[in-house]
Amino acid sequence: PTAMASKFQMVDPMTAMQGGAPSLQEAVAEEAERRVASAAEDLRVRHDRGEVSTEVSATGPTGTAYREAAAAEAEQRRAAAQLRREERQRAEAEAAAAADAARQRRDLREGDT
Q: Is residue 8 within 8 Å of residue 36, measured between CB atoms?
C-alpha cells in the first residue's frame, strides 16, 4: 500500500489484549483492509494516468451523466450518418456531371462526322 492508502489502516484495539492467533473477525478485517487498500491504489494509478472510468450499470445507463453520454453518442452517430449521406450525394453528383460531360463530348464528336 502507498502512503496515502496507509492512512486508512484499520486498527483493532483488542489485538493487544488477546495476545494470540488472529480471530476470524481480525482475519476478515485484515482482508477487508487489504481489498480497500488495493482498490485505493488502483484508483490512484488510474487517476495518475488520466483514465476516466464510468461505472456500467447492469440494467443499462441511468442518471443524468449516462443520459448525457448517450445523447452525445447518438449525436455523433447522426453526424457521421449525415456526413456519409453528403459524401454519397457528392459522389453521385460528380458521377452524373462526368456522365453529362462524356455525353456532350460524344455528341460533339458525332456532330462533327
A: yes
